[in-house]
Amino acid sequence: PILFVHSTDDEVIPISEGRRLHQEARGARMFVELHGGHMGAINQSAAILVQAIRTFLSTYGPRPRM
């Protein structure tokens, strides 16, 4: 599984590139849009990022062995 995280405000790598990579990826994948610049998105969108990681791990993370 792949978690794609990209900011709509990224001034270095356009979000269209992130969306393109997501579309071309095979298998399980999830795309999350953040807000903020290339280096500031993690701080500006921290709550969105944390929730996305939680969702991704609960969906695709390891399962307990029986």
Number of helical segments with 4 or more residues: 3
Please describe the biggest sheet, giving its number of strands, its sense, and whether it closes into a barrel. Answer: 2 strands, parallel
| Beta-strand content bin | 15-25%
The neighbouring-strand order within the major sheet is 1-2
Low-confidence stretches: none
Give the SSE string. Answer: EHEHH
Indicate the mean pLDDT: 95
How many beta strands in the DSSP annotation?
Answer: 2
Helix content: 40-55%
Structural class label: alpha+beta
Overall geometry: flat
Give the C-alpha Rg: 13 Å
**Alpha-carbon distance between the termini?**
22 Å
Give short descriptive properties of this protein.
66 residues, alpha+beta, flat
Structure description:
There is one protein chain. A two-stranded parallel ribbon has the order 1-2. The longest helix has 15 residues, at 46-60. The protein starts with a strand and ends in a 6-residue tail after the last helix. It has 66 residues and is an alpha+beta fold. The chain is 44% helix and 18% strand. It is flat.
